[in-house]
């Protein structure tokens, strides 16, 4: 007798540098407006306020190096973000213990159907149709803390077809990684396999089929994704 009535869905996992083992993903939390300049370009006050989060689905993450242009949109934007992967979790995690829960860091893109997201905003509806569609989270391999430490500064840049679109330093994040983890744990029970996409700098803009996107973070390498 089988345990499940349908075939078990595959485990979503991210490669890890230096090993053949992979990091299994449980949940994907995304923080919004975590760089002041991006908050301004999206029409919001850059002053520090309580962070807000939305979620993508684990199987939205994709390591193939390709981003299929999604349907029902004509305005897909790139958002280059540091990805944080947790090895342990809990609730009400103290700020000074938050980094103890991090397994490693990587590069990720929060691809967004901006036109559909805008419609949802105006109607006061959730954002999933603009944020959580298939393969909307291109990402690269994880770099374990044992290799890279906890990067709290370093240049982030993003280019499309060689043209610089986004640039910032990780130290410009309004809410730092320990604060994100601690804050999230007040509202959710974090667990091994959770990942956090930590927000994007200013310069978000549309991409087209055939574009080649290249993201780099100092100390964490690069991520190249082609829009197909």
Automatic annotation (TrEMBL):
GO molecular-function terms, A-Z: acetylpyruvate hydrolase activity; metal ion binding
TM spans (from-to): none
Keyword Metal-binding recorded: yes
Domain Fumarylacetoacetase-like C-terminal: 28-227
Keyword list, A-Z: Hydrolase, Metal-binding, Pyruvate
Keyword Hydrolase part of the UniProt annotation: yes
Any one Pfam family match given in the protein's UniProt record, by short name: FAA_hydrolase
PANTHER family: ACYLPYRUVASE (PTHR11820), FLUTATHIONE S-TRANSFERASE (PTHR11820:SF90)
Protein name in the entry: Fumarylpyruvate hydrolase
């Amino acid at each position: 007798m089988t345990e499940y009535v349908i075939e078990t869905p595959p485990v979503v996992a991210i490669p890890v540098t230096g090993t053949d083992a992979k990091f299994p993903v449980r949940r994907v939390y995304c923080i919004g407006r975590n760089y002041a300049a991006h908050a301004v370009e999206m029409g919001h006050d850059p002053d520090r306020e309580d962070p807000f989060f939305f979620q993508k689905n684990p199987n939205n993450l994709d390591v193939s190096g390709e981003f299929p242009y999604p349907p029902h949109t004509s305005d897909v934007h790139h958002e280059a973000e540091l990805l944080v992967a947790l090895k342990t979790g809990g609730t009400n995690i103290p700020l000074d213990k938050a980094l103890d829960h991090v397994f490693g860091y990587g590069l990720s893109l929060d691809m967004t159907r901006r036109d559909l997201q805008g419609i949802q905003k105006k109607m006061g509806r959730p954002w999933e149709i603009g944020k959580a569609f298939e393969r909307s989270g291109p990402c690269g391999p994880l770099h374990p803390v044992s290799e890279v430490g906890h990067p709290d500064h370093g240049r982030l840049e993003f280019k499309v077809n060689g043209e610089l679109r986004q640039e910032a330093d990780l130290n410009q994040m309004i809410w730092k990684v320990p604060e994100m983890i601690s804050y999230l744990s007040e509202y959710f029970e974090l667990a091994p396999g959770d990942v956090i996409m930590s927000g994007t700098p200013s310069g978000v803009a549309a991409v087209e089929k055939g574009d080649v996107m290249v993201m780099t973070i100092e100390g964490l390498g690069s991520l190249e994704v082609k829009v197909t």
